[in-house]
Amino acid sequence: MATIKRIKQIMNFEKEGVVSAWYSTVDYASIPDSYFEEDENGLDQWARNFLIPEYDPENMETNGAEKNSLPVIDIIGPCSYSYSYGEAIKNKIEKLGDKKISWLILLFDYEYRPKKSKIFEDEYVKFVGAFPYSMTAGSITEI
Fold first, then answer.
1. What superkingdom does the record give (predicted)?
2. How many CA atoms, within 13 angstroms, populate the side-chain half-sphere of residue 89?
């Protein structure tokens, strides 16, 4: 129990106005259900892998393709407030070498810092970065 409390103190990355993004090129259907199952603390394997001790599920958004992959902008575009951060995420993913992705995880009001956690990716997702966002921005597909 003391370990979880210590991790919460060290890894508290909550920050208003910032969205942290992770993406995958792995076909969503091929990821085991266990990756998304929550433990007794309400955390799924993704959160545990990235040493995220807690987050508000209301601040999480995911989007992706049921099968295969799509151009990055097609997955980011419909997401909330994407007009304020979508291009930056798209450019960073493409800089990492991926033109198409299968799905995306967004955690709003959270500034994940892999330099502190030392975890940039797991077997299914890669951390893209933390980007400012505006709640007054629409989605790219609305504009």
1. Bacteria
2. 35
What mean pLDDT, rounded, does the chain reach? Answer: 89
**What is the Cα gyration radius of the chain?**
15
Q: How is residue 140 annotated by DSSP?
A: G
Tens-digit pLDDT profile for residues 48-98: 999 998 888 899 999 999 889 999 999 999 999 999 999 999 999 999 999
Q: What is the pLDDT of residue 132?
A: 97
Helix H or strand E encompassing 130: strand 126-132
**On the CB side of 125, how many CA atoms lie within 13 Å of its CA?**
24
pLDDT in tens, 119-136: 999 999 999 999 999 999
Nearest to 31 by CA among 74, 64, 71: 64
Supply the pTM of this predicted model: 0.89
Determine contact, residues 143/87, Cβ cutoff 8 Å.
Answer: no
Q: Structural domain of residue 133, as residue ranges?
A: 2-142
Q: Where are the alpha helices (DSSP H) in the chain?
A: 2-10, 45-49, 72-76, 86-95, 114-117
**Total of domains in the chain:** 1
